[in-house]
Structure formats: structure tokens, C-alpha cells
Amino acid sequence: MSGWLIKMNQLQNNELSSQTRFVIAAGIASLIVVHGLGRFAFTPLLPYLIQDHVIDLVQGASLATWNYIGYLVGALWAIYLNRSTSPKFYLIIALIVNTLCTVLQIFTHDFFLFICLRLLNGITNGLVFVLVPALILEWLAHHQKTQLSGLIFTGVSIGLILDSLLIDWSSNLFHGQGRWIPITLIAIPLMLFSIWQINKISIHMPVATSSSNTPLFDRNSTPLFIGYAGAGLGYVLPMTFLPTLAHDLIQQQPKILANIWLITAISCLVFLPLWNKLGAQTNDRFALICSYIVQILSLVAVLVFQNAISVMLCAILMGGSFMGTVVCSQRMARVFQPHQGPKLYAALISLYAGTQLIGPWLVKLWIDHGGHLIQSFYIGLAALIWGLFWTLGTPHRKLKHSSQN
Fold it and tell me: Is residue 138 packed enough to be buried (19+ CB in 10 Å), middle (13-18) or exposed (0-12)?
């Protein structure tokens, strides 16, 4: 009898391990579709769209802005969806609509319609970016596997790499809005796989209880939230303007110049599992503090030396650490507020998205008053120092066993 019980336990563990892999894969695929392909493909596509006279630079900036606004709206909207017994219905609809937006961009020649599609893309991206990690993190927590949650966000870096490869490798095959075709061919099967696997997840999200109605901001969580605002503003400046800055500083290094975005994306993919492991083996507060320090060093390098090596260092260090901040902050928030569910993830992402909107506006204001792009990176440096300062004020006693929660 005891041997039979041992064998049954081994079978259940193997089944759970297989199920865990598919659940995490569904999260990764979802973020590739909405964030890596749906959102960030526009960045490497922009020079080609301008070259093909589809849009001009001013219109490109407008499209990017509306996408950011949509992302913020979607993340805020997700706060109210946590009242549902399950976010899966909204999640699946958002995945379908996001992919449909990518498909329709192939046939879009009217600029107003292009704006509407980028706005809708942002809204559905914000919804998925909140609901997928929330759903999967709760499932992992239920199965005592919270330490694996950071792997979901490798979908962002994988998507960035796919953007660079698909768009550059197919640049001679397509023209105009047809350049969205390679993105679509990857997005559709990944979306179908995500829906198939997400629909299998069975878990009741925490809703409408006395515990879940407690304030998000308390003595434990307030420093984390305030610091996270600095993270959003600090990361968006190099992640938005580093390629442009590279054109100003290292024109004599064409190989580095042409691959700076790919270097950033690969760094994100390589280092994110390390941040996830560091947070799980020590605690997420320590890993979060380290991620802020690495981001600060990345900006110090490019501000002090302003050469090819420093630009590469900034790409590697910033690309390799900004998602570590996201992962560790979300897990810390769950330890502080275990019954808040998607509400706290939505609040964090909304805060992150809101400060992202401020960053480019501050850069534009600085340049309009005679400043240089490199000088605007001091804004990002100050924001990251702000984030580090407030994170040091978060309590650590409650996080001692956060990786097992």
C-alpha cells in the first residue's frame, strides 16, 4: 500500500510539473503577443514606415503616445476586473482583440484608423499585462511555486528579439503596412496557444472580501509604490532614447549602432531568470535593491564616458535589470497584500505606465529649451535614485520567506 501511495504521489508531481510548464508557457506566449509583438514591434518598424512614406516622424510620435495612453487605460480598467470571479473571459477577449489589431494594421492606410488601432492595442495590452501575471501568479502560489513567476516576463524579451529578427530579416520582402505580415504570422499561433492553455487554468481569484477591500497603501506597501514610480520614469528614458543617443555618440561604430536594440533585448532574456532566482533564494527586497543599483550604474556609465563601450554597458545593464524590478516589485506587493489579487498588479502597472508618459514629455521640454538628449538622462538617474531610496524604506521582516508564499 505504501509503495502504491508513493507511486501515486510521484505521478501527481510529474503531472503538476508538466502542467506548470504549460501554464508558464501560456503566460510567456501572451506577453510575446501583446507586449513584445503588438506593442514594441512598432519601434523597429518606425524607420521603415517613415522610409516607405506611410507616416512621418511626428505622426509616429503621435501613434506611440496614443499607444502609451491606451496601455495606461487598460491597466486602470483591469483594477475593476478583479471583482470578477475569474479574469479568464476578459483575458481571452483582450488577446483576440490585440491580435486582430495587429492583423488590421496590414490593411490600414487611413491615419485616424491607425491611431484607433494603436490605442486599442494599448488598452488590450494593458489588460493582458495585468491579468496574465495576476492569474498565473495566483495559480503558482496555490501550488507553492511562486518563485517561478518571474519566468513569465521572459515573454517581453523574447518578443523584443523576435521584433528585431523578423522586421530586419524581412525588410526587403515587404513594403509599407505589409511589414506587419511577419509579426502577424507569429502572433496568431501564439495567441491561439495562449487561449488554449489559459482556458485550462482553474483557480478562483480573490474577490470582494473584507481582506481584499483593505487599502492598497499602508505602512508596508506605500514605500514600494512610491519607489516604483521612480522605476517607471527611470527606465523609460534609456529604453526609449538609447538608440537615438547611440546615433549621436557612436556613429563610427555601425555594428554596435545597428544592434543596440537587439543587445538590450538579449540582455533582458539572459538576466531575467537570474533576477527571478536571486529573489527566490534570498528575498525579493534584496533583489529589487540590486536591480535599482544596476540600472543606476547603467546610466552613470553612459553619462560619464559617452562612448561606444558605455552605450553598450547601458544597453546590457538596463536591458538586463529593468524587468527584474518589475518581477520583484510585484511579488513584494503580493506578500504585503496577499488578498488584493489583480488590483495591486493593476495599480503597480498603472503607476509604471503613468510615469512612462511623463518621461518623453520631460525630454521634449528639456530639448525645446536648448538642452541635449544626453543631459535628459540625468532625469532618469534621479528617478532611479528616488526608487532605490524608497525601496530601502520597505520592511524586510515580512519578506523572509516570500519565495515560498
Answer: buried
Q: How many C-beta neighbours within 10 Å does residue 64 have?
A: 18
* Cα–Cα distance measured from residue 320 to residue 400, given in angstroms and rounded to the nearest whole number: 25
Q: Burial level of 306, CB count in 10 A (0-12/13-18/19+)?
A: middle
289: left (phi over 0), alpha (psi -120 to 50) or beta: alpha
The pTM of this model reads: 0.76
* pLDDT (tens digit per residue) in 141-189: 777 776 676 788 888 889 988 987 888 778 788 898 999 999 999 999 9
Contact 261, 164 (CB under 8 A): yes
Structural domains of the chain in order of their starting residue, each with its CATH number: 1-205 (1.20.1250.20), 214-405 (1.20.1250.20)
How many CB atoms lie under 10 A from the CB of residue 67?
Answer: 23
Q: What digits encode the pLDDT tens for the residues 186-241?
A: 999 999 999 999 888 876 655 445 445 566 667 777 888 899 999 988 988 887 77
Cell of 339: 488578498
C-alpha torsion sign, points 274, 278, 280, 285: negative
> How many residues in the chain?
405
Grid cell listed for 252: 563610427
The DSSP secondary-structure symbol of 397 reads G
Q: How far apart are the first and last CA of the chain?
A: 32
Q: Which of 227, 229, 239 is nearest to 360 (CA)?
A: 239
